[in-house]
Design brief:
Length: 221
């Protein structure tokens, strides 16, 4: 177990334990978060606990070309059931993600400290949100970090059936058009698998990130 101090650094991701836990401690400064995501590391912890940093093996990712859209979702998108926007309500999306009930989870990892840190990254152009609106109401969306040609998804929410899925599919198509390498989905879920995401070894994931670090331009929506 690695204990972080004030130095902005991380051990190599391969040092994570079986659960993917790599280190604890440190802070949520913009410099540390930017470094973490560039290395495929993300924070995940509950209120009152020390900050925990993870690098999972295997890693759930979606290559944009592998996106699966069901017949029913194609109909939803064709009907324009939702208005999809980008970066118009970042804090609201992240707050809504933190309020979603998830079975087996006692609380939320989206603490006030996390909210403030990612809003800071949003101001810098790294953190982005995708919003789904219906009759002027925010009914779904997601947020994550974009660095070079990789998008690191963090969380999503839906108040109306298919809202977050519509936001996600629209975003993936947009990122594919921009030539993105992959969307990091972190861990396996049946929902993500149904959309075309799959598990890959951490070594393969890190190789993509190394390639991504050669893309110095910060792409935005």
């Amino acid at each position: 177990m690695y204990i972080l101090n004030e130095d902005i650094s991380f051990p190599h991701p391969s040092n994570a334990n079986r659960r993917g836990l790599l280190a604890i401690g440190g802070d949520l400064s913009r410099e540390r978060l930017i470094l973490a995501y560039s290395l495929g590391i993300f924070p995940w912890y509950n209120e009152g606990e020390p900050i925990s940093w993870y690098s999972l093996d295997p890693r759930m990712v979606l290559f944009p070309k592998n996106l699966k859209v069901s017949k029913s979702m194609k109909q939803v998108l064709d009907k324009k059931s939702f208005e999809i926007t980008y970066d118009t309500a970042f804090k609201e999306v992240m707050t809504a993600c933190g309020s979603v009930y998830r079975p087996g989870q006692g609380g939320t990892w989206i603490t006030d400290a996390m909210l403030n840190a990612y809003c800071d990254l949003h101001e810098l152009g790294y953190a982005h949100s995708v919003e789904a609106w219906q009759d002027g109401e925010l009914v779904g969306g997601l947020y994550g970090i974009a660095m070079g040609k990789c998008f690191f998804g963090e969380s999503m929410f839906s108040k109306v059936s298919n809202a977050s899925k519509a936001a996600f599919i629209t975003m993936v198509r947009e990122l594919e058009a921009k030539g993105f390498l992959l969307i990091d989905c972190q861990m396996y879920t049946e929902h993500l698998e149904s959309l075309g995401a799959a598990l890959i070894p951490r070594t393969e994931f890190l190789a993509y990130l190394e390639e991504n670090r050669e893309n110095e331009e910060l792409l935005v929506f």
